[in-house]
Amino acid sequence: MKPAPGRDELRAHLVRTMIAGDVATPRQNNLLHYRRMANGNPYYQFGLELKPSWTERTVLEMMVERCGVDPDPRYLYGDDTIDPDITIDMLEAMGDRIGLAARRGENVVVATGHPATLTPLYQAVARALAEAGCRVLTPAAGWTYEIETGYGGSDLRRIVYAGPGVAMLEGDDHRTHHTHDPHPMEAMLRELADSGSEGSPEAKPDIWPDLAIADHGWAGAAGQAGIDTVGFADCNDPALFAGAAEGKIDVVVPLDDGVSPHHYAPLTAYILDRAGLAPSG
């Protein structure tokens, strides 16, 4: 891995690769998702039990503050924006929390709903934490559930792990798949909760995450369970930002989560440098 970029260099990279700045996420898609989250649609709440007071307008205002989308409510069509300085500020906050986990030797869960693009970033962070003495947990490997598909069909999804412990979903086609669902993280936490010492039903689990590093429903479910959670979210995924506004998610880094995987390498180096961790290998 190349040395970590400076802030100005990283900012230029974010804008050049459209990870932040002018991004390819359509404004109309953003507004649709803001409305659906505000209306309580579970698919857009990522496993978080959000306050019912959200409206499409207050979600937009929150996303202007926490993500940097265009503030004009009359702007309905076209590409939207992510403020690269907010992205960098949140990368620094994420690095600080990951560094604390490393110094404490914490238990960590790492998971992604964007395996096609973000897996290398998560793997690098997980490896660095493992080498620093953290325990990267891998509960519920092989757990399966059905998802609905079009025309009344269904597909099976199972939890798999990319080394050294990045959870994601695989289908019967043996390919990894995008997901917003909180159910897999909820299954992971149930298995860990069931590891509690025998005796009192209120017994604390023997193994429980101190930190979750994740996105989508993986992050939402962890934050809802009271676990310190840091993660990534695109400007059309308002739930994690709302969770941060409500104090359930610790850090949300705004970025376009669908660009080529190698473009995230400078962000990975920046996080690890901020955390005081050396990249593996």
Protein model, in words:
The chain has nine helices and eleven strands. It has 281 residues and is of the alpha/beta class. The strands form two sheets. Strands 3, 4, 5, 6, 7, 8, 9, 10 and 11 form a nine-stranded mixed sheet that branches. Strands 1-2 form a two-stranded antiparallel ribbon. Strand 3, helix 5 and strand 4 form a beta-alpha-beta unit. The longest helix has 21 residues. 46% of the residues are buried. InterPro entries: Phosphatase_SCO2771 (IPR031423).
Average pLDDT over all residues: 95
Q: How many strand units?
A: 11
What percent of the residues sit in helical stretches (DSSP H or I)? Answer: 25-40%
Tell me the series of helices and strands, N- to C-terminal.
HEHHEHEHEEEEEHEHEHEH
Principal-axis shape: globular
Number of helical regions: 9
* Largest beta-sheet characterization: 9 strands, mixed
Low-confidence stretches: none
Write the layout of secondary structure elements.
Layout lengths: L6 H10 L4 E6 H12 L17 H11 L12 E4 L1 H21 L2 E5 L3 H17 L3 E2 L7 E5 L5 E9 L3 E6 L4 E2 L5 H11 L17 E5 H9 L3 E6 L4 H8 L5 E4 L10 H11 L6
Parallel strand pairs: 3-4, 3-7, 3-9, 9-10, 10-11
Antiparallel strand pairs: 1-2, 5-6, 6-7, 7-8
Summarize the structure.
It comes from Actinomadura monticuli. Helices cover about 40% and strands about 20% of the residues.
List keywords for this structure.
single chain, two-stranded antiparallel sheet, globular, alpha/beta, 39% helix, 281 residues, 19% strand, Phosphatase_SCO2771, nine-stranded mixed beta sheet, 11 strands, Phosphatase
